[in-house]
Amino acid sequence: MARESTLRFGAQTDEMTSLLRIVNMVRTGEAMTRPEIGRVTGLGRGVVTQRIDHAIEMGYLADGEFGPSSGGRAPRTLRFRGDAGRIVVCALGALHIHVGVALLDGDVIDQEHTAWDISRGPAETLDKALSMIDDVLARTPDHPVWGIGVGVPGPVDFESGRPVAPPIMPGWNGFDVRRPFERRYAAPVWVDNDVNLLTFGERARRGEDHLDLIYCKMGSGIGAGLLSNGRIHRGANGAAGDIGHVRVRDSELPCRCGKVGCLEAVAGGWALIRDAEAEIAAGATGSLADAIAEGKELTPERIAVASENGDALAIRLVQRSARIVGESIAALVNMFNPSVIVIGGAMAGAGELLLAEVRQRVYELSLPLATRDLKIAQSVNDIREPLRGGIEMVREQLFEVTFPRWFADGRPTVERALIEAS
């Protein structure tokens, strides 16, 4: 009796394993018809038909269009049910909230964006974000949320989903960001820093599976996302790539993190605003000085645009920032040996003026072998990039990391996707 039970359990396990493989093959495009699935898996025609019928009953697959004929009857293709659920992304920035909803195959179907100061604290900020998500989901009702990605502008312990001493996020240290989303939507939630989301977006845009890339965000602060052989490198505690608080030689400028001499305190967007205001107060003229005289607020974006338009003060500030950031990137290049460096964030709006200085310092200070095939480019600077990146992060966690745990349930749950993963 025990032996029969063991055999039945083994057969069920084998069936579920092959079923999972077939769903993933269709989802990734590895095999799209029943004959293709049979050839790739080695399963018999009857078994393939049985597995596919089961996958259709579970809601994972559906019949698609007829494929090309190889001489006989044209085979019907299969498609992954990307419409079976929704992925939600909440990208929190220093001065904005951007939320979006996507199909399971990654297509963004709706989004909302609003100005917001992250320093207003977690309770007020997340209440606002949840309200925005509710509004977007109300426009696509009757579809369950399968996963949620949250990006925050600071260091995150990815395993716990909690920010760790984020310099520009007072009140967020150790806050359980996952819990409000889990309670509202009963779906697994993953929290990452905003630069990693941008890095995921760049990977998806380039469509390269084994890419080695550094994404350097130069905005109000400075941070880097590291992509190694196509996978995000977060480090042991999620702190990998936090170059904004690397010490700059001979600098004693105070940083928002409480230390002195950090890269951000010398070359970040907020530091450029500080220096621009000081020089204007001392008599500097130009478009930035005119903006202040007109009561306009200086921002990293305004400084970047002014440098492109020939403002002497803005040009000097941007070039100095780029040189110093280029030195830190050069150290990463020697250690990490990427094939691509992407410069994004508000300061990237300065274009070639900034890129030229970064390139010069990187090529000057890095090893020849590390820069032999290196490309340094500007990001597409699309406001939707954090959403796309967050979607890719959630899709990776759902379908590559946790899929076998919740596959038999037909949709992910918080318990199977997160608790069993810890």
Reported for the largest beta sheet, the result is: 5 strands, mixed
Count the E strands: 14
Task: Summarize the helix and strand pattern as letters.
Answer: HHHEEEEEHEEEHEHEEEHHHHHEHHEHHH
Distance between the termini: 35 Å
- Structural class from helices and strands? alpha/beta
Question: What's the CATH H-level homologous superfamily of the largest domain?
Answer: ATPase, nucleotide binding domain
Instruction: Specify the overall morphology.
Output: elongated
Approximate strand percentage = 15-25%
What order do the strands of the largest sheet run in, or round the barrel if closed? Answer: 5-4-3-6-9
Indicate how many domains the architecture comprises.
3
Work out the radius of gyration.
25 Å
| Low-pLDDT ranges | 1-11
- By CATH reckoning, the class of the largest domain would read Alpha Beta
Give the second-level CATH assignment, the architecture of the largest domain: 2-Layer Sandwich
- Put simply, the count of helices is 16
Helix content: 40-55%
The CATH topology label of the largest domain is Nucleotidyltransferase, domain 5
Arithmetic mean pLDDT? 92
Question: What can be said about this structure in brief?
Answer:
Belongs to the ROK (NagC/XylR) family. The protein is α/β, with parallel strands linked by helices and 422 residues long.
Report on the architecture of this protein:
The chain folds into 3 domains: 2-80, Arc Repressor Mutant, subunit A, CATH 1.10.10; 86-200 and 384-419, 2-Layer Sandwich (Nucleotidyltransferase, domain 5); 207-378, ATPase, nucleotide binding domain (Nucleotidyltransferase, domain 5, 2-Layer Sandwich), CATH 3.30.420.40. The protein contains 16 helices and 14 strands. By secondary structure, it is of the alpha/beta class. α6 (194-206) crosses α14. A 5-stranded mixed beta sheet has the order 5-4-3-6-9, with helices on both faces. The protein has a 5-stranded mixed beta sheet with strand order 12-11-10-13-14, sandwiched between helices. The chain has a two-stranded antiparallel ribbon with strand order 1-2. The chain is elongated, with a radius of gyration of 25 Å. The protein has helices spanning 2-28, 34-41, 45-58, 122-138, 178-185, 194-206, 263-267, 269-281, 287-293, 300-308, 312-336, 352-365, 368-371, 385-401, 403-406, 414-419, and strands spanning 61-66, 76-80, 86-92, 96-103, 108-115, 145-152, 156-157, 162-163, 189-193, 213-218, 222-228, 231-232, 340-344, 375-378.
